[in-house]
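As noted in the main text, all predictions were made from sequence alone. Below is one such record, for 1-deoxy-D-xylulose 5-phosphate reductoisomerase.
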Amino acid sequence: MKRIAILGSTGSIGTQTLDIIQHAPEKFQVEAISGGYNTKLLIEQVNLFKPKLVSVATKELAHEVQLNVPAGTKVVYGEDGLIEVAAATDADLVVTALVGSQGLKPTLAAIDAGKHIGLANKETLVSAGHIVTEAVRKKGVAVLPIDSEHSAIYQCLNGENIAQVSKITITASGGSFRDRTRAELEGVTVEQALQHPNWSMGAKITIDSATMVNKGFEVIEAHWLFDLSYDQIDVLIHPESVIHSYVEFVDNSIIAQLGNPDMRVPIQYALTYPDRFVTPTKKLDLAAIGKLHFREMDYTRYPCLRMAYESGRQGGTTPTVFNAANEIAVARFLKGEITFLQIEQVIEAALQKHESYANPALELIHEQDLWARSYADSIQF
Ligand SMILES: NC(=O)C1=CN([C@@H]2O[C@H](COP(=O)(O)OP(=O)(O)OC[C@H]3O[C@@H](n4cnc5c(N)ncnc54)[C@H](OP(=O)(O)O)[C@@H]3O)[C@@H](O)[C@H]2O)C=CC1
Ligand SMILES: CC(=O)[C@@H](O)[C@H](O)COP(=O)(O)O
Ligand SMILES: [Mn+2]
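Prediction:
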């Protein structure tokens, strides 16, 4: 039986992880879970899965949860609570499904405690990839990607020699505005931006997908996960999201991974790697689909992807700032403070203002993350 802890159990990835666990209860024991503010769902989850430990965002919410869960359940809160869920149980694998760079410290705590990681929280690798990679190397834990493209590449690389990979291609749906020109992005609404064509996901990643920041994050994530140079990582628009990504080898052979867009497939793979089991997901019917489409990436249409490559190549604190400025810009867009096209302007302004530091320690990452947040918040249009 595998013992699991989930950071962010009330979110899109978190609930789908519990859904998979519920379909194979004999395989899993849920040791600990964390939510933020959705205590109603969190209490339901605690009563169903009976974890020993649960964390919420604040002390007041912890009090509310404590009154509504089985006696003996330990309820903690805040950043320390997340760190406890990540590290202080008998879990073998920690699923990191928090949103944003707030996932960094709990992820590092889990690695330091020798836990394997089911990684959904890509912002952690974008913000501090070199620190996470070094911690993983030191402790010898596995990082099993949950992000669909990285799970695809991980599967394509099974048993292969990474030195014989010429490049990987990450597919991109194009997001909610994939059929609009840049001029047609003027005045788009939050509601429109939240309509992803293929995936049902949390609000922040859905906006990241529309700006192509998500694909930029995935390029940086792939650089760290697979130890590939940025020249070896391509992005291709594939509106159907059926080919989740592919790997090209030196002999020009290509291996791709396909499936319906359903995150429960990569989640299942990360939970029990290298085993697979029957899940409630649908079979892919290529005959019914008939045709798959592909378009070359246009970096003028999607400047955030260009900025992501530049940030990744620059390294140091630059990707930290790219991520933090984006987090604030997306939050401001969702609150109606700035327009969709101003998201990229906020990121660009923060990157221009920022002075990059090479090989930063965790304290400097934290400092630059805070600086970028405050700067991105101060920009007025
Ligand atoms: N959704 C998807 O299909 C995919 C997501 N990812 C990545 O996975 C990660 C999670 O995404 P997703 O599940 O969509 O995000 P959601 O917004 O759906 O979920 C985020 C989770 O984080 C919790 N949380 C938010 N703020 C806090 C806080 N201050 N303290 C404690 N917990 C907090 C939320 O709790 P609550 O809701 O209770 O407040 C929720 O459990 C992201 O990094 C995303 O990029 C990657 C590939 C696909
Ligand atoms: C499901 C998943 O992995 C998301 O990261 C997805 O890739 C978003 O779709 P886009 O291709 O539109 O960014
Ligand atoms: Mn993805």
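The chain has a mean pLDDT of 98. The chain has 16 helices and twelve strands. These features were considered when defining construct boundaries for the mutagenesis experiments described in Section 2.9.
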